[in-house]
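Hi there,

I know you've been waiting on this one. I reran it after we fixed the sequence typo, so this is the corrected version. Both the input and the resulting structure follow.
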Amino acid sequence: MTGRAGGAGVVPEPGALVHPPDRPTLLPEGHTNAVGLTLGLVGDEWNLLILRYALLGVRRYGEWRAALPISHAVLTRRLAHLTEMAIFERVGYEGTANRFEYRLSRRGRDLWPILLSIWGWESAWVPSHGESLPRMLHRRCGREFLPVLTCAACRRPVRPRDVVGGFGPSGTWERSVPMATTRRRSGPTGEAGAGMFPETMALIGNRWSAAILGGAFQGLHRFRDFEQRLGAPPTIVAERLRVFCELGVFEQTPSAERSDWLSYHLTDKGRAFFPVVISAIDWGQRWFTAPEGPALLYTHRPCGHPFHTQLTCATCTTPLRGNEITARHPS
């Protein structure tokens, strides 16, 4: 492998990325950007489920097999991919040379705001779950809570309309669509073992769902915009828009241009998913850097500072840390 030495690492050849677990990956110029790579990672339902259990302390292959309805081949592929992406570090255990456990790296542990935002959204907006959804407990204040998205600069609560911006130097629609590196499991929406997070899987559980939802937060609302800007097949766009409307995340309205056209706009439930989307973008841009610059640039309108995410406890209003959060299961 060849590359150019740099202060933070090596710029690799396309297809041969180096992912240091404790510092950002440097991306090839002109290729998939931080948004596309992140959506490809968290926009895969098996990855999300594996990470959910990893953040709860699971480290060993057999524990994932026992907890998830997952085949040997799929789990092996996902663990290999997450290790290649430096989300996990594979470490030998029990004094043997051929038995390993998968420990979250620094970049893997840094995923907790995304998973916590998903947990919070499902708790607030999804009434029915395949498993009983535990309540969040903040160890610092000792009380149950839901996370609140705030600005890291001014610590005020943030709504989608408070954040303005768009594509940066490495940001285009083409470069932001995740690569199809994995295949979604078949099955009806919200089923197939999604468990605690059924509707999240329907929203970001495959590459086109994640891309369409991201496009909606970027201002896309017409069928042809989703199709043309994202390069998505029309049958996929139609099916995804139908599912999003059924879930109450999008609503159809007549187009202002022509009465026989439809527009698709985020509902309150859809806008409430914003912390998941923006936390994923923020994580991605911390851990993947393009030589041209960031993929997306946002400003928090009320304070005027560049926007970066911070999650706060709704009960005691202090900033959250991953190691201060635990689950309280219903009795």
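Quick highlight: The longest strand covers residues 88-92.

Best,
R. S.
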